[in-house]
Amino acid sequence: RRGMSYLVTGGCGFIGSHLVDALVARGDRVRVVDDLSTGHRENLAPGVELLEGDVGDRALLREAMEGVAGCFHLAAIASVERGVREWCETHRVNLSATIAVFDEAARIGGLPVVYASSAAVYGSNADLPLVESAVTRPLSAYGADKLGCELHARVAGVVHGIPTLGLRFFNVYGPRQDPKSPYSGVISVFCDRMLRGLPLDIYGDGRQTRDFVFVTDVQMALLAAMDAASTDAHVLNVCTGQATNVLHLAETLGEIFGVSPATRHLLPRAGEIRHSLGSPIGARRTLDLPSPRSLGDGLREVVNWL
Ligand code: NAD
Fold first, then answer.
1. Residues 149, 103 contacting (CB under 8 angstroms)
2. pLDDT for 65-105, tens place per residue?
3. d(CA 234, CA 272)
4. Ligand 1 first shell, C-beta below 6 A
5. ipTM higher than 0.90?
6. Active site residue 203
């Protein structure tokens, strides 16, 4: 599979740009479709072709898929909050454009598509750790649209013969995650505030937990997923199976920075899930992944990058 051409939608974004780096490093040619709404051109390695525009634009998609061996579809409006305010527009990007990607892959004939789903498909299911066969109960337009992507991936496989694999990312963190975005993950926000000597905002008691997965582990899962894509339209969790609470996160960052962080407790956020934890067993088995990066090691890399 080396020396092939791949399309990465959303390749200028946080996760997409790390994937592009890995493809380039192993000698593949990469084309990116991105509208630069949250991504940055500077994230792209030199020599990567950027087609700037909307992933739902059929003519652009057609041009982008010309001559590629597979498509990694990561472009999305990755913000639950924007889904509240702009329900229809986020639906167009997060689900309709994904169907457009499958449809164009079908027009070419059997082009494999690896796409980003999310732990948000599980929503209020509290049966932890979450396994892929667990009931899906999305609590947001974002989660509902990601679940829609998975359902249409089944259609892509059964009706159109498109091999796919959907990856349900849990809380991804790492270098290039934008701390200035109000929708960014708690890790990038905390690191930025520590660096600037500002207090860390903790919503509620800080004992809510998340399954934080380092971006290079996500990168490896994406690469392996392209080889494992099939018309069975499987979905896999991309997570560590380790729960970390927000207080522990603040403490670990304090150790890395060598100062104990000042914290501010705010009211709990309405509608926030208390605990999120995935089972990594399915992905480890199917994708033959190494043990994930520890939180301490991952955090040190983020801090070094800042
Ligand atoms: P990101 O915002 O950094 O990346 C998304 C990219 O898509 C950006 O470069 C953006 O400019 C581009 N984009 C957005 N709308 C577009 C459009 N209409 N046309 C073309 N390009 C468009 O976010 P990310 O964290 O890198 O997320 C990548 C994928 O992973 C998304 O599908 C997201 O839903 C999913 N995901 C991320 C996480 C996480 O923790 N970061 C968790 C679960 C799922």
1. no
2. 999 999 999 999 998 889 999 999 999 999 999 999 999 99
3. 28
4. 10, 12-16, 33-39, 54-55, 74-78, 93, 116, 118, 169, 171-172, 185
5. yes
6. no
The domain covering 5-171+212-238 belongs, at the CATH homologous superfamily level, to NAD(P)-binding Rossmann-like Domain (3.40.50.720)
pLDDT in tens, 14-58: 999 999 999 999 999 999 999 999 999 999 999 899 999 999 999
Answer whether residue 1 shows pLDDT above 80.
no
Residue tagged active-site, from 6, 115, 142, 173 = 142
Q: What is the DSSP letter of 62?
A: H
Parse the chain into domains and list their residue ranges.
5-171+212-238, 177-211+242-274+293-305
Q: Ligand 1: which atom is nearest the Cα of residue 39? A: 9
User: How far is the C-alpha of 134 from the C-alpha of 275, rounded, in Å?
Assistant: 15
Q: What's the gap in Å between 160 CA and the centre of ligand 1?
A: 26
80: enclosing H helix or E strand: helix 80-85
Mean pLDDT of the chain: 96
Determine which helix (DSSP H) or strand (DSSP E) holds 22, and give its type and residue range. Answer: helix 14-25
Question: What is the fold of 177-211+242-274+293-305?
Answer: UDP-galactose 4-epimerase; domain 1 (3.90.25)
Q: How far, in Å, from the CA of 168 to the mean position of ligand 1?
A: 13
